[in-house]
Design brief:
Layout (H helix, E strand, L loop, with lengths): L1 H25 L6 H4 L18 E6 L6 E7 L13 E10 L4 E7 L3 E5 L6 E10 L8 E2 L4 E5 L12 E8 L3 E7 L9 E7 L7 E2 L3 E4 L2 E6 L11 E9 L2 E10 L5 E2 L4 E7 L2 E7 L10 E10 L5 E8 L3 E4 L7 E10 L16 E3 L12 H55 L1
Parallel strand pairs: 9-17
Antiparallel strand pairs: 1-2, 2-5, 3-4, 3-6, 6-7, 6-8, 9-10, 10-14, 11-12, 11-15, 13-14, 15-16, 18-19, 19-22, 20-21, 20-23, 23-24
Length: 423
């Protein structure tokens, strides 16, 4: 009896295993599913399947100054796989030069766009991931990946990249970008500046160049508003008699480059407290986004200056103790807080306000006696000059009068001598 039960159990197990295999293979409608699907295993408990990585990985440049297109195709072993059998997803990884680490994204599409620094290597790799009934509803990742490395173009005269490139978003009104020429840039070079963001179909040239010493040294976007919280790509290239200049590429978001305008500081005393107040700069900069720094310069009895800085969130500051003998001067500046921007520029310092104020020292009134003396001396000097001029003119006139008389006398004496001789 026991032997019959054992045989019955074995037959049931065999039928169950056979039915499971047939059911799994029937999902593709063909017995060669194991090879076509790319899963090198048997559909049973405890398998260890594998899947191939994507093929035809390609990086293309549409001319967006570093915003590149990435595309790939389905692995050959997975192309005939039905959607009911497994779902195919891809894991794209690319090296982010800004963070110095790899960034990863999973997508069901076979294309993706990412931002890169074209002056550095562009490294991209992609995996295949399968999920579905034929994988026991577990995600299976390809052990290998397909990788492409794109090197910088390296064209242009060596060492002619621009230096000290900096963009400042002035009080969130307009953007100014400036750069400095490399010492190796030929004198007769002409540099050009281009920009691109997602709202543009193609890269555009600088709307208004900033000139310094007769050469282009920056770009003014006063009449060309740019979007916030969007990657904006820039490129500075050019040409020279020695050949093309080596291009430089940059990418930034303008809300991280705001420089607020300086504030107006007011100072007064209330109930033995020194009150400092100031107004937020007018413009698009939100008031709650500004962090403030107050600087106090205090002059001690020995004449030495002591400086101290305090960070505040509000637009006022109070000192509980006031020393009339110790003169203190204050000024304030601001920048965007880390809650509104990743980074920011400090504004210029406000005009200093001091307490106690310097008393205006009255200018000494001129002594009237001295004034009269000076006037008298001036008059006497003028009279002396006039007398001297008159004497000179009189002497000149007298000389002119004496000369004709002496000439007539000489002639008359000569004529008299001739007459006497003849007689």
């Amino acid at each position: 009896m026991a032997r019959k039960l054992s045989l019955t159990h074995l037959m049931l197990l065999a039928l169950t295993w056979r039915g499971t295999v047939v059911q799994c293979l029937a999902l593709t409608g063909r017995l060669s599913f194991v090879f076509t699907c790319g899963l090198r295993a048997v559909c049973a408990r405890g398998w260890s399947p594998a899947v191939d990585p994507p093929e035809d990985l390609l990086i293309s440049d549409p001319g967006h100054l570093g915003h590149l297109d990435i595309s790939w195709s389905v692995p050959a072993a997975v192309r005939n796989l039905t959607p009911e059998c497994a779902r195919c997803v891809y894991q794209l990884e690319y090296f982010n030069t800004n963070t110095g680490s790899w960034s990863a994204v999973r997508t069901a599409r076979r294309s993706y766009r990412a931002q890169f620094d074209l002056m550095k290597d562009v490294r991209v790799r992609v995996y295949t991931l399968l999920d579905g009934p034929c994988t026991n509803s577990t995600v299976i990742k390809s052990q290998n990946y397909t990788e492409v490395v794109r090197r910088p173009a390296g064209t242009g005269v060596v060492g002619t990249e621009v230096q000290d490139f900096l963009c400042v978003y002035q009080n969130m009104k307009h953007l100014e970008c400036r750069w400095r020429r490399s010492p190796k840039t030929p004198a007769d070079s002409l540099q050009s500046f281009y920009f691109w963001h997602r709202e543009l179909d193609h890269a555009e040239e600088c709307p208004k160049y900033i000139m310094l010493g007769g050469v282009r040294s920056g770009c003014d976007f006063t009449d060309k508003p740019l979007p916030d919280f969007t990657d904006i790509n820039f490129c500075v290239n050019g040409s020279s008699p020695d050949g093309l200049l080596r291009p430089s590429f940059f990418s930034l978001q303008i809300q991280n480059h705001v420089k607020p305008e300086p504030a107006q500081l007011h100072l007064h005393v209330e109930a033995d407290q020194l009150q400092l107040r100031w107004e937020r700069p007018a413009g698009r900069v939100p008031g709650h986004c500004l962090d403030w720094e107050v600087e106090q310069n205090q002059e001690g009895p020995d004449g030495k200056m002591k400086s101290e800085k305090v960070n505040v969130q509000q637009t006022s500051f109070a000192l509980t103790s006031v020393h009339d003998k110790d003169r203190s001067c204050f000024r304030v500046r601001s920048k965007l807080s880390r809650y509104c921007a990743d980074r920011s520029f400090w504004s210029e310092w406000s005009q200093p306000a001091c307490y106690p104020e310097e008393e205006a020292v009255p200018e000494p009134e001129p002594d009237l006696v001295l004034v009269y003396v000076y006037v008298a001396i001036a008059i006497i000097a003028m009279l002396v000059v006039l007398l001297c001029v008159g004497l000179v003119l009189k002497v000149r006139r007298s000389r002119k009068t004496k000369k004709p008389d002496s000439l007539l006398t000489t002639l008359f004496a000569r004529n008299s001598a001739v007459v006497a001789t003849e007689a």
